[in-house]
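FAQ: What does the model actually see?

It sees only this:
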Amino acid sequence: MSERAALDDAIVVAFDRHDLEATAGYTVDVVVEDSEGRTLVGGRVELRARHGGMFAVSADRRSELAATLALAEHVVDDERIEARSPEPRRLVAVDRVSGNAVVRRLVLR
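And it is asked to produce this:
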């Protein structure tokens, strides 16, 4: 596993533990966008608040990395998310990584 893919894996593991400190894997000014280019999160503070809200309403929320592809400064994750719905949801995340942190994330659902 590449260093960049290991970073994404560590973030998913921390997310499953509902560890808000996992946001340390993101830069202070991280941007998370959806497939339409809408900003979902602008900065680590917003990211922590969003994750905290998800953890509060879905204590059983879990993610599994089905596949990870690292290419240059990008990491693509195919995630399966189990939460309140009876069927797992699928999410594809494309992360741009600089150093040891995600600077931008594109979320495809």
